[in-house]
Amino acid sequence: MRRVLAVFAAAALLVPAGAVTAQGQPPPGDGLDQTIDSGQSVATDRKVLSQGHVDVGPRFTDGEWTLMVHDATSDPSVWRHLDRTVFQVSDAGVLPVPDDPAYSFIGLPGTPVHVLPQVQNPDVVWVGWNTQDPEVMATIDGGATLRMSGVDGPGELFVYLQAGNFGAADVLWDSTKDGAQEVWVDVNTHTHANWVFTEPGVYTVRVEVTADLVDGSTVTDSQALRFAVGDATDVEAAFAADVPAPAPGSASAQPAARADEAAGDGGGEGGGPGLLLFAIGAVAVLLLAGVFVVAARGRAAKRAALSARDES
């Protein structure tokens, strides 16, 4: 199953009621307007990320296409290897499933689940994804495909966004479904979503990133995201956890497979199912102002990067 994350990427976010400015823009410091510098360091130590802003995304490391995590909790920010990183989801992120039939696929109303929300909660890690590494922007042809191809854990994982004001939940990734699930991500995209874990424990999530390059070649990398969900879960167990086998049809199972052309079943951010209306203590609204700027800005950034490369 494929979802298209294009025009709405990075522009839609959930904010508490009253937090939108008079101009309809998110308040300063929402963290979505970021620039990643070229030549940022790659940290080699093991790291548990329990708070702050982080993004999974591709970069070229020693010339090799690699899925990594951009850690903005460090000063200056660094890239980290995913096999040396654990995302810790504390009990501060526990919320009840809403009493709304739209979210019955998660569980019974009132059931406690661990949530990493789309809008930053300072008490838990804020996990997103980006295609903003300068070398990536200069070399990929239009965008990349993020593919979830396997989940191991004691419960289920749902990753989703909201397609419109109080619209239905649009799930991007759903561990109850068989097979690989894909999301198309435009170049120079920065997006955050809700990550919902139905039970505490260790989760390993196989994620692949594939892109066609401007030179006509295709690159793919597969890594595991490691989550320690719940205060009682041992992060060392997350570091040591096995990586789930790739789903049939995934790039890992078929290394020669290429990503489909960007096309779409379903517009909107992620173009697909996604976001639980988890607003901490308040009604939430979806901010869609400026959504059409994102795709144009991504294309402009890529053209500028290519022009600079050609002139050098």
Short description:
This is Putative ABC transporter-associated repeat protein. By secondary structure, this protein is mainly beta. The chain has helices at residues 134-139, 235-240, 291-311, and strands at residues 2-5, 13-16, 42-43, 47-49, 52-61, 64-71, 78-81, 85-89, 94-96, 112-116, 125-130, 143-152, 157-162, 169-174, 181-186, 190-192, 194-197, 201-212, 218-229, 284-287.
Global structural class = mainly beta
Overall domain count: 1
The number of helices is 3
What share of residues are in beta strands? 35-45%
Spans where pLDDT lies below 50 across 5 or more residues: 4-30, 255-303
- Which overall shape is indicated by the principal axes computed on the Cα atoms? globular
| Counted beta strands | 20
Summarize the main sheet.
7 strands, mixed
Reading side by side through the largest sheet, how are the strands ordered?
Answer: 1-15-12-18-19-8-4
**Could you spell the SSE succession in H and E letters?**
EEEEEEEEEEEHEEEEEEEEHEH
Helicity range: 10-25%
| Radius of gyration computed on alpha carbons | 18 Å
Q: Quote the average pLDDT.
A: 77
What's the N-to-C terminus distance? Answer: 41 Å
Protein name: Putative ABC transporter-associated repeat protein
Organism: Actinophytocola algeriensis
InterPro entries: Surface-anchored_actinobac
Keywords: Membrane, Signal, Transmembrane, Transmembrane helix
